[in-house]
Amino acid sequence: MTAEELQQLIQQGLDCHHIELQGDGRHWFATIVSPDFEGLRLIQRHQKVYATLGQRMHTDEVHALSMKTFTPQEWQANASH
């Protein structure tokens, strides 16, 4: 899977204001900014992202995904990105 394909999958399921992906095709690191994360705990945010990938996590198309998730307000407050 390419970074563009992974980005499209995530953006289809989430309203992403910003997304950055780095990886080797199976192991990925993502920074995702979405208003969909408002009011959610960290684990709930990650579950929301995993839900956008569906079976791809189970079929090993995406072997590993680590991520940082932010609301737009958190992202703006963290101006050191």
TrEMBL record:
Recorded GO cellular component terms are: cytosol
The leader peptide range reads none
Q: Tell me, which GO biological process terms does this entry list?
A: DNA-templated transcription
Q: Which SUPFAM superfamilies match?
A: BolA-like (SSF82657)
State the InterPro entries in the record: BolA (IPR002634), BolA-like_sf (IPR036065), BolA/IbaG_stress_morph_reg (IPR050961)
Q: Which PANTHER family match?
A: BOLA TRANSCRIPTION REGULATOR (PTHR46229), BOLA-LIKE PROTEIN 1 (PTHR46229:SF2)
Family, per entry = Belongs to the BolA/IbaG family.
**Name of the molecule in the record:** BolA family transcriptional regulator
The scientific name of the source species is Lampropedia cohaerens
